[in-house]
Predict the structure.
Amino acid sequence: MKLTGAQALIKAIQDEGVDTVFGYPGGQVLPIYDALYDSGLKHILCRHEQGAAHAADGYARATGRPGVCIATSGPGATNLVTGIANAYMDSVPLVAFTGQVPTPLLGRDSFQEADITGITMPITKHNYLVEDPADLTQIVREAFYVATTGRPGPVLVDVPKDISSGETEYHQPGPLCMPGYKPPTSGDAERVDAAVKAIMASERPVIYAGGGVISSNAHQELKRLAEMTVAPVTTTLMGLGGFPGDHPLSLGMLGMHGSRYANYAITDCDLLLAVGVRFDDRVTGKIESFAPNAKVIHIDIDPAELNKNVPVDIAIVGNLKYVLTQMLEQLTTKLPGAWLDKVKKWKKEYPLKYASKEGAIKPQQVIEEIYNVTGGKARITTEVGQHQMWAAQYYTYNNPRSFISSGGLGTMGYGFPAAIGVQVGCPDEVVFDIAGDGSIQMNIQELGTAVQHQLPVNVAIMNNGYLGMVRQWQELFYNRRYSHTEMPNPDFVKLAESYGAEGYRVESASDIRPVLEQAVKSKKPVLMDFVVEQEENVVPMVPPGGAINKMLD
Amino acid sequence: MLHTVAVLVENNPGVLARVAGLFSRRGFNIDSLAVGRTDDPAISRMTIVVEGDHRTLEQVTKQLHKLVDVIKINDITEEAHVERELVMIKVIADRTTKLEIMQIADVFRAKIVDFGPKTLTLEATGTEDKVNALEEALRPYSIKELMRTGKIAMLRGAKYTSLK
Ligand SMILES: Cc1ncc(C[n+]2csc(CCOP(=O)(O)OP(=O)(O)O)c2C)c(N)n1
Ligand SMILES: [Mg+2]
């Protein structure tokens, strides 16, 4: 069967089980968009390629299936860059297709030419420049395989226009031949034995769980392991939902804005079981004071993470789902002891708390109300800043893939397009983007996307009139010199309405609940402008580079 | 300390940029890098001399392994191996110094590959030390041009870095 390269490409994408892509057209992807036209593949037209990349990323995080985005050459491709870097830092399976100038024009600074494979080399797991239409199907097969296996991540495929418009025989992709790529599965048996022995011998174990638990779907194994060994579990920002937040063994989040009790437990533990984490500096603070008394076991699918930031006692390379299963086969049930009592006492003594204020709306309170109104069943995305930390602290995540946030790159403007992707992937669920007044304006244009595709996403803006997180650091570390962090905002209600969405401004605490209830019921996208206390700070806080048990309130 | 690492890669476009980019981005120092194809034209081999302690080397190896095009990595520093580097040196040579330079070439078993009216060009292969020594010996004669290929290295005996 003769097809154009573009038709072969679309068919190959569909053969991967993909039913939805996010994108934006342009000159060098005209053949691809022509093939899309009657392909049956659903295309969500975003309003900016960054939006398309984040939406595909949100879709992937919510569903566990790879996200796909398409952009034209040059500026279209470079607009994807932030989205690709974001997916790379948080290990999200994303496949990006870009148009490219025709092969004979490559390397000549042609109109809308950008060396996107060169540009994205450090932020993709792998990338391809297609040189022959006959290679397309095999490359697509490889791209999806690489993106979704091992430590997941973004892959980019750059398709010159002569390749997408050229003719080719449709080749079913053959077996994969990638001698340099072998995703790990089970862990080394001897090391697993050693880890089990160490856990059984420990008196004060703590589990430090990250995004790897969610990407390997190992949340049930983790829960069983924690219960059998009576080990309290603290998660990273990326790990929220990987262990039920309402579980008696849950310590919530650790690190810079973690709970006191999580950080105390880390400091005091004699055994740290680190699963699917990377000992990021926002978690460890001063590295010498992180779990100073503990034997450290680290399990990760990426060998390069082991011994990268901290030397560990037992390092196990493997897919968490396999390795935790191996461990469960050998573990015996432990009994609760003095350690659990001590941890429970900390939990009681140092709860997360904020002071209510008469006549003012506290952002933490809005987030608690979102939890109440949705019964904790919403999918939450966030932007980046104070509101993101409050969303992590004051909403309880009981299920994996329910908290979707830019952890590694910290990308303002992520949450809203991500929420669109989540809603596309989970059409029957309630989706909230918990946003800041600054961040939401970085991709506000995606209101158009939500309205056009009838996606009833809810955006709750914690409007403090500041780039609040930066302001907080200026308050604490720069003598309150608020350099360029205050900004006048648009009328968000009118803005929403001009796009055809619903908008609400909430200025009194008694309106929080009714507005949230209305939003959840609405079939339209809803933008809620919560006018909150302006100079509220995120606490507790470990000053950068400090020991994690020395926290400011 | 300097480590000599043999790396087999798929001979795909951009593979050198991927490897070089990885080193600079992660702050690893390359002392030298030599690359060429193997008996299988689809596979190239790089010999990379990299500076760093044990932990740096562990990270270099693991990060290199994450590149899809990298097939095999072997740190051969501590193992018995043969290593060679090729150097070409052009020195100013007048009637009085020509003979002296040719004597030096003799000592180092270097070949004269170009005999110009005012210059001599020498070619030598050997270990890094030998090449350094030759350079030092010729330095008093005003070196106009010097070029080294970087080290290539191979394990001795029955051990090998290949896919066979
Ligand atoms: C794209 C991008 N630019 C800049 C920053 C630095 N930054 C981190 S938080 C923040 C303030 C965010 O303000 P807002 O969205 O209003 O959230 P708030 O902290 O007030 O809740 C800034 C500017 C960033 N993370 N991302
Ligand atoms: Mg703000």
Remarks:
- Residues 101 and 108 of chain A are 10 Å apart (CA to CA).
